[in-house]
Amino acid sequence: MLVVQKFGGTSVGTLERIEATAKRVIETKKSGADVVVVVSAMSGVTNQLVEYGEHFSKQPNPIAMDMLLSSGEQVTTSLLTIALNEMGYPAVGLTGAMAGIYTDDIHTKARIENINTSRIKRELRDGKIVIVAGFQGITKGGDITTLGRGGSDLSAVALSGALDADLCEIFTDVDGVYTTDPRVEKRAKKLNTISYDEMLELASAGAKVLQNRSVELAKKLNVKLITRNSFNHNEGTLITGEDVSMEAVLVSGIALDKNQARVTLRGVVDKPGIAADIFTVLAEKNINVDMIIQNVGQDGTTNLGFTVPQNELELTKQTMSTLAAAKHIEYDDQIVKVSIVGVGMKSHSGIACLAFETLAKEGINIQMISTSEIKLSVIVDQKYAELAVRVLHNAYQLEK
Amino acid sequence: MLVVQKFGGTSVGTLERIEATAKRVIETKKSGADVVVVVSAMSGVTNQLVEYGEHFSKQPNPIAMDMLLSSGEQVTTSLLTIALNEMGYPAVGLTGAMAGIYTDDIHTKARIENINTSRIKRELRDGKIVIVAGFQGITKGGDITTLGRGGSDLSAVALSGALDADLCEIFTDVDGVYTTDPRVEKRAKKLNTISYDEMLELASAGAKVLQNRSVELAKKLNVKLITRNSFNHNEGTLITGEDVSMEAVLVSGIALDKNQARVTLRGVVDKPGIAADIFTVLAEKNINVDMIIQNVGQDGTTNLGFTVPQNELELTKQTMSTLAAAKHIEYDDQIVKVSIVGVGMKSHSGIACLAFETLAKEGINIQMISTSEIKLSVIVDQKYAELAVRVLHNAYQLEK
């Protein structure tokens, strides 16, 4: 039995929390399992380091930035290793590089290419608990990389896949995945199971329990994922193949994403290849375009809308200004994305209607709509964010 | 022309100081030289990390401790690299591992075994300023090591040797090497040149400008060393071969070491091999024994005295308790070592006499005496520390 346990920033946020985490790890080790632990930086540390880097430059050298940021996880890895050894459990700490986590060289947003697990396997054979610094890897050329925000989840899932772990436990400071954010709707319910696909849509729609890429990877590598609270022993939420959650649930959750900005291009010349041009240029800048909607236009032109993360809006503006394709561009960061997610949506009609009716009844205007098989997302004015979540949560009776 | 510049903790102690350091490096680069920079952690950071580690354990796992401590230099390396790039000077930051600094596996006190300079040389050829995290290396097995306190100096000197640098500049917050500590004797004078050997004796006698091992290594590798103040443009002190400082100076400085503790073994059986036994056991624990003095005893027994660093006294006590060799052991950490250093002492008699007379006149009792070709050290009661330095400084007319 091999368990990978990942502890987020609040779970290692203080020396006391690191001690508690060590005890938690030992519980699992005592149960007879081999344990690989992935840790984030102490909460606040990464932001502090980013501030340091940005003291010198608005766009700090990304290679140096990665070396800077990776130090945060290195510290927690060392401290947890020291704590475990002191408690009588031999442990070894590894940086991403030492753990053999190889990535491409897209610094600050690197992707894991492969993991050489020989060192980890050797340490496990020696009976050691292995602590790995999350969020980081190394290029073939030997430079430190980081995997982007939430990258420690990705480290944990990738390691689980590479080591063929029986279970990957993601410890945070909440009990699991909820039908919606309990701070917005206090009747929100914790889900016991959810499918990869639903979780994916929830994550991309702003539910912050798990990073999107890590769920994608878990699905791809068929990693059994559980998200749990490191502050208690509650059961958590199991994220796994679709069949498990086939409990005739239509909608499993409502997600709110406040981090989107809307870009609308009016009067785009309506000929093939224009959209491709625009999104190719944005992709080259590694801008994460989310929703894309094209409306029918007039006079041989069309309107094109899309959303980007708010912190990439500046870069988007710069990038768009180099394009002659659009007559008028509108930017709006005073919007939010509200999403209804559920595998049941695939096979049931009427789900979307209920959403539109519910929002209309409250006088909430829908600016953009986008749908997938298991998700319906709408863009609405920021001021309606919480109201929209609450009325939808109620409409789909998620409190039950 | 290749210059290695090392900046200590206060020189990179704040974001503003890192900016100032970047400007200093650029001055050198602009002069046409290739530059390799070695940095320490921001002042206070290493102590903070040690505190963190010791929160969990009195004797933290040394492998994890090294990973922990090395993060401090990694941060300053990254920040200086970001600053230089922002100022328009392409720079690359390297951890000790990336810089190819290979060490043995005596964690927290590792010794550099060899340096693979290929990465650094390639970066220099590409016109880059290379920033290397001081104080750290990597074992052949891939574990991070640290070189012990002051290890960044060692990194700088070793890199200077391996790269055949024309000059190794050590930047601190003082102007250079003084005849004695200016805080103790305000008439202390800065020396323009000093020989490796004198510097060695001064360093081992407690002058903190340069770490002992780095001077030894500089001598061995014939590295031209200059210690300078990063807060001004004063000339500094050149540390080099003996001939340069042959200015008929008898004594070049008085050093004070408050970090010693005295161990005295009374009634050691006076037969061959006993001393060897004792010091072998201490060496195995990596305890740095400094002065060793054996007095003639009586009744087939002898007295043996030596000094160890204060922070190794606990370990020394533990270690000595396993030995049956001595009847009575005395420990005293209320002592200091005062040393008179100068190449002129080799060829001039009477130097020692003047010291003994001077101390006697002030009623300062000498507990131990030890001499080398260019140094005379005495152990005296702690309370006389500053007085002893001042009267000796005056006796040898070092203010002139």
TrEMBL record, chains A, B:
Q: Where are the transmembrane segments?
A: none
Q: Which residues bind ATP?
A: 6-9, 172-173, 178, 183, 208-209
State where substrate binds. Answer: 46, 73
Q: What EC designation does it have?
A: 2.7.2.4
Return any one Pfam family short name.
AA_kinase
GO cellular component terms, A-Z: cytosol
Gene Ontology annotations of biological process type: homoserine biosynthetic process; lysine biosynthetic process via diaminopimelate
Q: Which residues form the signal peptide?
A: none
Question: What family is it from?
Answer: Belongs to the aspartokinase family.
Q: Please identify the protein, giving its name as recorded.
A: Aspartokinase
